[in-house]
Task: inverse folding
């Protein structure tokens, strides 16, 4: 296959970026999208040019480090898939593909397609945990959790923190990311004690980082590689309002 | 009988009392002194994050480093199948002793009894800890925890969270770590790579790190340094590891005096996806848990051309069930991988490149129905479809062995301290618990146990002697020298201006290792490999091509540093494999096998761990032997028949 690429190149967050045209001739349908970029980079390096910087690590869809906009869609055309798990069989010979970084005010560009998502870490830091020290834990089976409860909590806990939800949202909202963590911990007895404090702090941190508000377009769920439901956002809003009423400052 | 350098510090007493004896006698650091002590933890996978969080909770000042853009992405995240613990919730005869014995036997009696016992002993607490953090482990309908079975054991002691156990455990540890960031007990340095270890008066006192976003070289001092930097299976290039996994931190510590133990013992995982072409960057793992319900087979006829579903039952060879009837498809990884290689080498491999075997779920689908299979392995089947385009509910998966886990690593004593004072190694970065082959679901366990439950005690025992030592001065000349060396090395990569990229070198090196120091090794092959690696290393010095410069984001430069280290590690692996004239676990020397092709151990001559010492010449490392003394268990022939 021959693939035409228009890739966003940008030296750093302060420079102006632009699309540059590239062609990759020897694309195989079994290649992953990132392997196609590897092939391009090898060519660029050999020509003495700077390769395209992009985020990636595990290349099996779980670490959440990869992620680019492919023809305007976070992680590309295949549903519930990270960029690394997208294969070139999703494209045709002669296709032109636009490749851009996940763009959001809260995600500064490091270089080319590489971005800084530490804002998401800071949301977790603000309260996305159960406050238990090592050694304090009671016997595991002393906290029975039904099959359904565990499965529902897992559905929320499955978030890989890639930021596709933010990139897909017209407001660059991190509501799905934040809502998923709040819901995961709220659904389990271990996490419930701190729910009110947690939800307040996490929502406030989310705003501080410059993420936008959720206006219920539900684009985030559509592009989420883990298919995290927007009901997590509803849950967050519910818990947030409840905590506003119940928490004494 | 140990040499003074290899004092294992194994406590006195019966096996089941050793760890409690150690804890009873270990020195403590009082809470008001802890805040004066700084600890560097490199790596934020399960061992690094759990150690950093636990130490910070105790009151120490921790600096945590990772090369990923956030700690949550460390490669523990990719572990799928589960984590073992001797809870005996299934009432099926499990116990700490049995788990210890399974692990020791699984490792072909090439690990320390005391360490392995401690691993089993601490396993139950880990499950408690993870549950308290909110890790959503699989449950029975009544609300109690569910278990499944894994390779090499005959009980169900594996706890799991769908096929994402590593991710969920890591998120638990990561969240605990971030809680300590909030408490200002941990300072986080993401996108930082350790370039060197700094020793002052023969004690580990700090590191040189490169900020991967700016290229800036930084100095960090501490009272102790902990390496939790994972395994180096990526040295084979094609492996189940993440692209960034590397040996650099432990190798640079090795060059400062930390011994490397059993570096050639690499687990080749039997159930990975086969290579499809030369462009391929990694091999994706399919969890071993699939072998609970999947049956492995190849066609009996090597000229078979029919599709798998068209091949009748009697023309299939379920070779694991045939050769190892009592363990069947759940034979340990080294055995399953070697058996697959045997079939592939005999020309019975399947797929376009004839480099795979079938993993077939048709019987389980018939027996349990699609819903149950989907619930158990749904995400793995989805992943398989995404990568290969094939629906495994309709036809068997094609799987193949791939480099996976480093049983070898930095030599550590019972306290997990390396041969450098004040330098500790935990998780996959050390060599300690798995012997010559790791059992499935013991890796997450070891990482967690090292970080949550062992290091907090043993590090305190060391730090108790450091309370009066003033804060490390990063202006010390040792820091000057180390920084200067790092800068020079980066500069040399950039100024070589040759014609081959680091990745091209890495692919060549990886192929050499797969062929000659992989599933099967021989004297002749290893000697040839050593020669070839030396040549390749020479070429690397003169023909490397790295674009850009050092004061900016530069992935090619990062790769060059890692491959430069791999060039030396690879030779040590071959030297290690060459000196061990026996077969044990994952180390299979063609010259040493039984009549039916199983590994033939030589306890009389090789019942030791090989701890290699750096001598400034990568081709002439010095061998130190730590004898393995079996006081409680008698090593037997490891049979899974």
Result:
């Amino acid at each position: 296959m021959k693939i035409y690429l228009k890739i966003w190149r940008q030296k750093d967050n302060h420079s102006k970026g632009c699309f540059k045209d590239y062609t990759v001739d020897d694309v195989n349908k079994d290649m992953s999208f990132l392997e196609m970029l590897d092939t391009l980079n090898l060519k660029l390096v050999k020509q003495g040019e700077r390769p395209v910087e992009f985020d990636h690590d595990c290349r099996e869809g779980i670490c959440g480090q990869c992620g680019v906009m492919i023809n305007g869609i976070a992680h590309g055309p295949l549903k519930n898939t990270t960029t690394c798990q997208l294969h070139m069989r999703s494209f045709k010979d002669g296709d032109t593909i636009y490749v851009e970084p996940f763009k959001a005010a809260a995600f500064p560009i490091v270089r080319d397609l590489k971005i800084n998502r530490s804002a998401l870490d800071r949301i977790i830091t603000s309260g996305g945990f159960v406050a238990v020290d090592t050694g304090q834990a009671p016997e595991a089976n002393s906290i029975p959790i039904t099959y359904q409860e565990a499965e529902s909590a897992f559905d929320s806990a499955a978030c890989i923190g890639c930021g596709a939800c933010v990139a897909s949202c017209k407001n660059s909202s991190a509501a799905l990311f934040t809502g998923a963590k709040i819901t995961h911990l709220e659904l389990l007895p271990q996490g419930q004690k701190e729910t009110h404090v947690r939800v307040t702090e996490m929502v406030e941190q989310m705003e501080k980082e410059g993420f936008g508000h959720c206006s219920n377009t539900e684009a985030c769920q559509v592009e989420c590689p883990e298919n995290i439901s927007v009901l997590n956002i509803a849950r967050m809003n519910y818990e947030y309002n409840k905590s506003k009423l119940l928490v004494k400052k | 009988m140990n040499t003074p350098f290899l004092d294992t510090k194994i406590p006195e007493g019966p096996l089941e009392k050793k760890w409690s004896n150690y804890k009873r006698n270990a020195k403590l650091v009082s809470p008001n002194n802890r805040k004066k002590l700084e600890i560097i933890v490199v790596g934020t996978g399960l061992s690094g994050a759990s150690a950093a969080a636990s130490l910070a909770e105790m009151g120490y000042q921790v600096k945590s480093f990772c090369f990923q853009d956030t700690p949550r992405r460390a490669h523990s995240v990719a572990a799928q199948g589960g984590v073992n613990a001797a809870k005996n919730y299934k009432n099926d005869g499990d116990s700490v002793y049995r788990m210890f014995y399974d692990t020791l036997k699984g490792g072909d009696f090439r690990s320390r009894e005391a360490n392995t016992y401690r691993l089993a002993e601490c396993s139950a607490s880990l499950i408690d800890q993870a549950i308290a953090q909110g890790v959503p482990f699989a449950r029975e309908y009544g609300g109690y925890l569910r278990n499944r079975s894994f390779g090499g054991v005959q009980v169900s002691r594996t706890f799991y969270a769908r096929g994402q156990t590593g991710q969920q455990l890591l998120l638990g540890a990561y969240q605990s770590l971030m809680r300590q960031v909030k408490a200002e007990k941990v300072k986080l340095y993401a996108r930082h790579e350790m370039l060197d270890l700094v020793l002052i008066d023969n004690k580990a006192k700090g590191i040189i790190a490169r900020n991967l976003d700016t290229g800036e070289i930084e100095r960090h001092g501490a009272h102790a340094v902990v390496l939790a930097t994972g395994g180096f299976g990526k040295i084979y290039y094609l492996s189940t590891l993440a692209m960034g996994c590397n040996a650099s931190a432990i190798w640079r510590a090795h060059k400062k005096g930390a011994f490397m133990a059993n570096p050639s013992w690499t687990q080749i995982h039997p159930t990975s996806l086969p290579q499809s072409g030369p462009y391929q960057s990694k091999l994706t793992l399919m969890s071993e848990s699939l072998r609970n319900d999947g049956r492995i087979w190849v066609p009996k006829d090597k000229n078979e051309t029919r599709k798998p579903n068209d091949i009748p039952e009697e023309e299939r060879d379920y070779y694991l069930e045939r050769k190892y009837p009592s363990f069947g498809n759940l034979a340990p990884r080294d055995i399953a991988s070697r058996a697959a290689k045997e079939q592939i080498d005999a020309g019975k491999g399947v797929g376009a490149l004839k480099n795979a075997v079938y993993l077939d779920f048709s019987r389980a689908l018939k027996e349990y129905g699609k819903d149950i299979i989907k619930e158990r392995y749904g995400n793995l089947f989805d992943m398989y479809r995404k990568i290969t385009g094939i629906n495994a509910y309709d036809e068997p998966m094609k799987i193949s062995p791939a480099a996976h886990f480093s049983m070898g690593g930095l030599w550590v004593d019972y306290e997990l301290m390396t041969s450098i004072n004040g330098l500790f190694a935990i998780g996959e970065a050390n060599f300690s618990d798995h012997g010559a082959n790791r059992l499935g679901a013991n890796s997450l366990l070891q990482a967690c146990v090292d970080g949550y439950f062992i290091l907090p005690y043993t590090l305190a025992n060391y730090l108790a002697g450091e309370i009066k030592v003033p804060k490390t001065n990063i202006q010390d000349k040792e820091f000057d020298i180390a920084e200067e060396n790092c800068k020079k090395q980066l500069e040399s990569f950039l100024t070589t201006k040759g014609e081959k990229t680091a990745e091209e070198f890495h692919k060549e090196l990886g192929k050499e290792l797969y062929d000659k120091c992989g599933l099967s090794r021989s004297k002749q092959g290893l000697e040839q490999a050593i020669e070839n690696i030396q040549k390749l290393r020479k070429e690397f010095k003169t023909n490397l091509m790295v674009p850009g410069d050092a004061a900016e984001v530069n992935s090619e430069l990062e790769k060059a540093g890692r491959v430069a280290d791999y060039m030396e590690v690879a030779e040590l692996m071959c030297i290690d494999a060459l000196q061990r004239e026996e077969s044990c676990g994952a180390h299979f020397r063609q010259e040493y096998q039984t009549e039916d092709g199983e590994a033939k151990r030589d306890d009389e001559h090789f019942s030791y761990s090989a701890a290699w010492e750096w001598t400034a010449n990568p081709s002439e490392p010095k061998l130190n032997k730590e004898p393995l003394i079996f006081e409680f268990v008698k090593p037997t022939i490891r049979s899974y028949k």
Q: What stands out?
A: The radius of gyration of chain B is 24 Å. Chain B has a mean pLDDT of 96. Chain B touches chain A through 82 residues (CB under 8 Å).
